[in-house]
Amino acid sequence: MIITSPIINFAHRGASRECPENTMAAFRRAVELGATGIETDVQMTRDGRLVLIHDERLERTTNGKGWVKDQTWEELAGLDAGSWFKGGAYAGERIPLLEDLLELALGSRLVLNIELKNGRCFYPGMEQKVIAAVRACGLGSWTVISSFNHYSLALCRTLAPEIGTGILYSEGLYRPWAYAASLGAGALHAEYRTALPELVREAAACGVVFHPWTVNEPAEMSALIESGVAGIITDEPGMLSALLERR
Ligand code: G3P
Ligand code: CA
């Protein structure tokens, strides 16, 4: 993966404190706030389209009902994914397709952190479709595919050795850099409290970088930067951008 700046500022679900998560409004606002990367969540529709939405179900962030996997893209395309947020100020925002974000990434030179949400719903063929979409835009070296489903990441490495992968985990891992290396992954996407400075240093010495999540306080951001992480996943890309500029 190309490193565009010393530390990648990954906006978590876009600028998700200001805008409804995983919408084009949130992604565009993240760019305005100085994000150099976008983290997003991918699910798959019944007819095999890749859509950006965190939950497997529609209720929390849209006016739809049911499982994403049971609906066609045509059924999802008309849903409102913005009205739930901040009293309706973003009414009319839609669920984006992965290709919509890829287009923005191309134009704005963003690093993409595409999380495959295939831990509860398994979405056969999702890995191949994500890889094909990324390759079609020539964004392979600008992308890291992450997932809590580590078997899926190993499959991605086999299918697309040129695309980086990031091991997502929320509890501590024993020798996480060795685990990452065993799966061919170049990055550890650790819950930030498990990204201890000695682990970050040991991993870097083995060529494995940390992209901890979800870091929203300046003191925590500073401590992680000090320890040598390669990127930070945050709901507050503006805060991180300001902090990085002051360094
Ligand atoms: O990328 C880290 C983070 O997004 C994983 O948790 O639930 O926010 O997708 P979640
Ligand atoms: Ca995510």
TrEMBL record:
Molecular-function GO terms, alphabetical: phosphoric diester hydrolase activity
Protein name in UniProt: Glycerophosphodiester phosphodiesterase
Entry-linked Pfam families: GDPD
SUPFAM superfamilies, sorted: PLC-like phosphodiesterases
GO terms for biological process, alphabetical: lipid metabolic process
PANTHER family attached to this UniProt entry: GLYCEROPHOSPHODIESTER PHOSPHODIESTERASE, CYTOPLASMIC, GLYCEROPHOSPHORYL DIESTER PHOSPHODIESTERASE
InterPro entries hit by this protein: GP_PDE_dom, PLC-like_Pdiesterase_TIM-brl
Residue ranges of domain GP-PDE in the record: 7-244
